[in-house]
Design goal:
This protein is α/β, with parallel strands linked by helices. Helix content is 21%, strand content 28%.
Length: 136
């Protein structure tokens, strides 16, 4: 077997939501759980000659509307670890919740990867239900 590529993985924190009760953030959470802090990240996987970004985060306006603290533009955080968002060729979107999909314009060279089933769910009849569509 040949040598497998070595990957560096970066967690780039761009926002936060401090001290919220679990029921305010997580659907079906036990209302008796203690408040907790929530951080928001985009991820970058970097090997020789290849960078893959996982999720693109939300923007300043989305943070304002949802009462989140916005620390930095995700693309600025990527730049701090040596990644030019404009040159990234592959972006994996894990799912279509608001905190995973924004800032697409920052990745003009990227091919976006998303599971067909996720696209079908996010554009299907379930989005008519406010409880299901809230995170989208």
């Amino acid at each position: 077997m040949g040598d497998a590529p070595h990957w560096r993985i970066y967690a780039v924190r761009y926002g936060e939501l401090p001290g919220r009760p679990a029921g305010d953030v997580l659907k079906g959470a036990d209302p008796h759980e203690q408040p907790f802090d929530m951080d928001y990240f985009v991820w970058a996987l970097v090997s020789e000659g290849r960078t893959v970004v996982v999720d693109t985060g939300f923007g300043r306006e989305s943070a304002r509307r949802r009462g989140r603290i916005f620390r930095r533009e995700p693309a600025d955080g990527l730049r701090q670890v040596g990644i030019d968002a404009g040159a990234v060729e592959d972006v994996v979107i894990t799912h279509l919740h608001y905190d995973h999909v924004g800032n697409f314009a920052c990745f003009p060279a990227a091919r976006f990867h998303l599971q067909d089933d996720e696209m079908g769910y996010a554009t299907g009849r379930h989005m008519l239900d406010e409880g299901q569509s809230h995170s989208f």
